[in-house]
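It would be a great kindness if you could assist me with a short task in structural biology. I am sending you one protein, given as its amino acid sequence and as whole-number tokens for its backbone shapes. I would ask you to consider whether the tokens describe a fold that such a sequence might reasonably adopt. The full record is reproduced below for your convenience.
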Amino acid sequence: MKKTMYLLCAVTLVLAVLSISAFADVFTPDASGVYTVTKTVAAYANKQVTIVVYSGSSATVSTIQYIDQQTANASGKYEFKFKLKDAPTATLQVKVGAETRTAAQSLGTIEPPAPPASVTLTGKISFYGPKSTLTFKAKNLSTNKETTISAVTKSEDSAAFGTYSVTLPSGNYLITAAQPFHASYTKNSLAVITAGQTFDVALLGGWIFPDSPSIDIDCLIRLLGSYKKKGAPGFTSADINWSGQVDIDDLIILLGNYKKKNIVVL
């Protein structure tokens, strides 16, 4: 703790002096994610050198990704090897300073990785009934191109969820999903930019009276009116889970989603 506080004080002194841009490197990690920053500054010979890597316009406890200190050798050479606290999502500043009256040096930046050209998005999608009646789409907010997500796998119509997979160009997407007698789902903006990205969608069953403003008392009355009736799976909207019988399981689903409306997420 004392070392951390000492380093923060050193950073404050270093950055309080007008920084100069002696170099303009863009630092990249090796295969294991380790960055190396090494320089030789004659004025730093046998001096304590402080490095700070941070995001934004100033180094604070919340923006610092790496901070350390070491003594430069007799020729002024120093070398820091480090991993960042978090994977960079914005440009990081790399600055050093020493116990001299010279200004802090802006060595360069660490840039976030460029997103891949395309991303295969996978996840779970919760709904009852056949996937043939599911409407599931992703709309690119830059190009307005809409993609129907049709690669949905479900073990049986009565299963509570299925899985999906879709390959999309990197970008921001409007995600929409709807299934009859369910509360629909909308995600206004999803950044699809990371390899191996997952995203789950939940449609809420029980909206069996479509004219209702939500899953409400009218839906409950309709279910109770069909209670214990049997038929082919999905023979009535009250057979929420497509089991072929309106029973306690359907009632539990409806009551669990009672008063719920269409879901909209920013």
User: Anything to note?
Assistant: Helices lie at 2-16, 217-225, 248-256. The radius of gyration is 29 Å. The chain has three helices and 18 strands. Residues 2-110 form a domain with the Immunoglobulin-like fold (CATH 2.60.40).
